[in-house]
Q: What sequence folds into this?
């Protein structure tokens, strides 16, 4: 078990190295940042000087090695555009994205699994059919359209909820939270629905189909034949077995919520890392882009690792510990 | 004979389909007394499992009980609501399924599966439930039961798992056990152990056992009485010795002729020509007449007689006597 974890961590490390390399070399082709940083009236001398300060005059492998060494210490260099350390900028922006992701992830999980189980148990009910049909909207509408529709209905027409920003935030240490003020909470509603809707419907449809499969199994029949309550059959016996295949997809989808908050953050002008990334692309702010990509890949790798460990926790057949009969 | 534990009267199970109404079980009557093992035998699709599922109320939709009555210890149970029926399942009627590899929840320790069933029906404390769970495992011959209580199903062999399944079916001490092909998925050597176990528990506890199988050998060794099913109907019902040595129904006769029994020596096995008709396409008259070596005109036109009264042996217009069976087949 421990050996397995060590091996997985080692593999994850290699994945990160490769992602770093790909991200870093890709950015060499997106344009010269110097063009943006200096105005129209620049001399060749200015360009050379800035290039030297930023270390852009060094050969590619050296740049990459430096980038890695610094990144390992949490130092992603200085933003070309803002002139401040990237780590600081991201630390400022991260709470907004993480809070948004937390709310929409929880929403997607709770509602998705709940509705999935409901539609599986009452699979011929009217309510189930309505839910299943409605869920097609969630799967098929693009995120930005959902966001714009929600803004149109709830902000423009009804005027109930704000259309952009985080509302008032409270500082707790280095963390700015929107959970503590009424306007902060109101501001969270539309973006988190927009961000989580696709994941919610996806999780729901997945849970439903897996659960229908599990409900056909012999051990469910046997549990019924032993006179167990429907609640126990559905939740104690069926749901746990449903979760084994569902966990993988759910884990990756929750990662996607953070990674692809970009669109939602753009639509709602949410001051998170996604918006930061979009702005960074416009200005060819390579350190910010690189740091963002690295962060996202660290997250995905971590989620994958957690998912694998969850398998062990849920499915005893995977635990190889020599207790076999 | 004391009051029967299970009494099934004129049971009809229907499946509505686009091509009309199918009747996988069509007018079946039988009774099982305490401490008695009734073997239900027949080809695949003869309706033997369907009968068992109907008794415990586990018919898969759209199959449903269309008519007939099922009595458990004198109480009618075929018209109960699901929640009323649930109290009978496990408590009064235990069920053993065919495949021990798939009948146990792979993610729950067997001890948990036992204690939840015991607590559901007997309302005892969890410590008491665990004590009973260990006892139930010991009773079915699981060695070191107290230590194995936390084991998961995959940590047992197939035969051991079927013992666990039997322990689960019997842990709330039901008066009737329906064993649906309990040995089919097992090795031959393990089969004998499992049937011996069922037989011992039946005698010790005075349970009624309905043993559904297609294996005449298992029936011959285990059952007290046997019900032979063909195309949803009872072909023959009687004491196992009588039915095996002197079958009255030509189908039973053919079935015996096609079963290797040590007592018969090394004769070439007989084979019943053709196959059982599909339910949607039953022949006129007696359902068995196209395959019957003794068919007469009456069999082709008149619906086969039913075993209306439980003393009758064979549902045949021209039941065999010993002499004709001997020269007819083999």
A:
């Amino acid at each position: 078990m421990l050996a397995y974890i060590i091996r997985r961590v080692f593999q994850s490390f290699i994945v990160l190295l490769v992602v770093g390399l790909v991200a870093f070399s890709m950015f060499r082709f997106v344009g010269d940042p110097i063009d943006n940083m200096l105005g129209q009236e620049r001399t060749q001398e200015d360009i050379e000087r800035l290039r030297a300060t930023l270390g852009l005059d060094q050969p590619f492998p050296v740049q990459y090695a430096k980038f890695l060494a610094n990144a390992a210490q949490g130092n992603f260099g200085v933003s070309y555009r803002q002139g401040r350390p990237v780590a600081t900028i991201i630390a400022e922006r991260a709470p907004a994205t993480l809070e948004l992701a937390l709310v929409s992830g929880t929403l997607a999980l709770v509602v998705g699994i709940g509705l999935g189980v409901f539609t599986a148990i009452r699979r011929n009910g009217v309510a189930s059919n309505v839910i299943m049909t409605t869920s097609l909207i969630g799967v098929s509408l693009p995120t930005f359209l959902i966001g714009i529709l929600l803004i149109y209905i709830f902000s423009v027409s009804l005027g109930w909820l704000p259309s952009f920003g985080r509302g008032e935030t409270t500082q707790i240490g280095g963390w700015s939270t929107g959970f503590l003020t009424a306007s902060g909470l109101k501001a969270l509603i539309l973006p988190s629905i927009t961000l989580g809707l696709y994941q919610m419907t996806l999780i729901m449809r997945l849970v439903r189909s897996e659960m229908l499969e599990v409900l056909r199994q012999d051990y469910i029949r046997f549990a019924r034949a032993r006179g167990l309550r429907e609640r126990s059959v559905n939740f104690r016996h069926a749901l746990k077995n449903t979760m084994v295949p569902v966990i993988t997809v759910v884990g990756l989808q929750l990662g996607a919520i953070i990674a692809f908050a970009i669109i939602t953050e753009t639509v709602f002008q949410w001051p998170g890392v996604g918006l930061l990334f979009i702005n960074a692309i416009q200005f060819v702010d390579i350190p910010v882009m690189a740091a963002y990509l690295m962060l996202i890949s660290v997250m995905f790798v971590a989620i994958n690792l957690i998912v694998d460990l969850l398998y062990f926790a849920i499915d005893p057949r995977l635990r190889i510990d020599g207790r076999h009969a | 004979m004391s009051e029967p534990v299970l009494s099934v009267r004129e049971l009809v199970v229907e499946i509505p389909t686009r091509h009309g109404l199918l009747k996988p079980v069509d007018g079946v009557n039988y009774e099982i007394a305490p401490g008695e093992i009734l073997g239900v035998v027949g080809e695949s699709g003869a309706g033997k499992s369907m009968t068992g599922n109907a008794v415990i109320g586990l018919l898969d939709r759209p199959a449903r009980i269309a008519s007939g009555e099922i009595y458990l210890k004198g109480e009618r149970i075929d018209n109960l609501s699901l929640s009323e029926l649930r109290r009978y399942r496990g408590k009064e009627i235990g069920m053993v399924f065919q495949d021990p590899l798939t009948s146990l929840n792979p993610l729950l320790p067997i001890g948990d599966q036992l204690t939840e069933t015991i607590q559901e029906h007997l309302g005892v404390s969890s410590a008491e439930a665990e004590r009973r769970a260990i006892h139930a495992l010991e009773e079915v011959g699981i060695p070191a039961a107290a230590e194995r209580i936390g084991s998961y199903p995959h940590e047992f062999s197939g035969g051991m798992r079927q013992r666990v399944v039997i322990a689960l079916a019997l842990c709330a001490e039901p008066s009737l056990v329906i064993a649906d092909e309990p040995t089919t998925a097992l090795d031959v050597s393990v089969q004998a152990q499992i049937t011996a176990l069922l037989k011992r528990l039946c005698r010790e506890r005075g349970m009624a056992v309905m043993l559904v199988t297609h294996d005449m050998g298992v029936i011959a060794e285990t059952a007290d009485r046997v019900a032979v099913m063909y195309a949803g109907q009872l072909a023959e019902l009687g004491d196992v010795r009588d039915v095996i040595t002197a079958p009255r129904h030509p189908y039973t006769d053919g079935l015996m002729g096609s079963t290797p029994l040590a007592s018969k020596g090394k004769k070439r096995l007989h084979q019943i020509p053709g196959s059982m008709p599909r339910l949607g396409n039953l022949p006129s008259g007696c359902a068995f007449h196209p395959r019957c070596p003794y068919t007469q005109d009456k069999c082709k036109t008149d619906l086969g007689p039913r075993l209306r009264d439980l003393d009758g042996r064979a549902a045949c217009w021209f039941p065999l006597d010993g002499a004709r069976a001997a020269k007819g087949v083999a």
